[in-house]
Amino acid sequence: MSVRLKVCGMARPDNLRAVAALRPDFLGFIFYPKSRRYATPTLTPADAAAVPATIRKVGVFVDEDTAVIQERITQYGLQAVQLHGTETPETCALLRATGVVVIKAFAIGAQFDFAQLLPYVGQVDFFLFDTAGAHPGGNGTAFDWQLLADYSLPVPYFLAGGLALEHADLLRNLQLPGLFALDLNSKFETEPGVKDANLLRQMFQQLRP
Ligand SMILES: O=C(O)c1ccccc1NCC(=O)[C@H](O)[C@H](O)COP(=O)(O)O
């Protein structure tokens, strides 16, 4: 089976349609006002509703009120939430109990203490491992994937952080325990929030031969 693909940071209706036509497994909408890929107000609930049902819609949040997250889930028909802040296992469990898939993101630097993940086991559906940087996400740099070589927790994860076309060969052959999906973002943009559909198509062709 080929690797699952998520394209994150959709913010424009035409661009959303072009990328949805490539049939990613997940599309991400960033509901973090400080992000250069903030989905609102350019992307409306009607735009999201037009996304084919086979593509899971993921809302990305950073330390947002759960009431606001719930509102976005309803408005945009989100199937999953991706949490990039200091959200606790309790917050994750609360959201998960409403039926939404919960992806808890963690930023990885030169080293990573995997023990911090333990309280989240059983409270989230997936982890997302991203690169630590100036922003809570979308930093455009890769971390050392070998830090995940001995991953043994029963929570599958998305691999994120500066994934680019030049990584296609490595990613296609990547044998990391627990790897569930790849997350593509700033390395496939013409400007923040606008994906280069042609570049994404090349990546998809290489990862889904
Ligand atoms: O992309 C953002 O602007 C962003 C801002 C705040 C929180 C999360 C954000 N992105 C979430 C993602 O899933 C990105 O795809 C992930 O951080 C990797 O991005 P990149 O390093 O640009 O490939």
From TrEMBL:
Its EC number is 5.3.1.24. It catalyses: N-(5-phospho-beta-D-ribosyl)anthranilate = 1-(2-carboxyphenylamino)-1-deoxy-D-ribulose 5-phosphate. Keywords: Amino-acid biosynthesis, Aromatic amino acid biosynthesis, Isomerase, Tryptophan biosynthesis. Residues 6-206 form the N-(5'phosphoribosyl) anthranilate isomerase (PRAI) domain. One of its GO terms (molecular function) is isomerase activity. Pathway: Amino-acid biosynthesis; L-tryptophan biosynthesis; L-tryptophan from chorismate: step 3/5. It holds the Pfam family PRAI. The keyword Isomerase applies. It comes from the Bacteria. Belongs to the TrpF family. HAMAP family: PRAI (MF_00135). This is N-(5'-phosphoribosyl)anthranilate isomerase. It comes from Hymenobacter glacieicola. The lineage of its organism: Bacteria, Pseudomonadati, Bacteroidota, Cytophagia, Cytophagales.
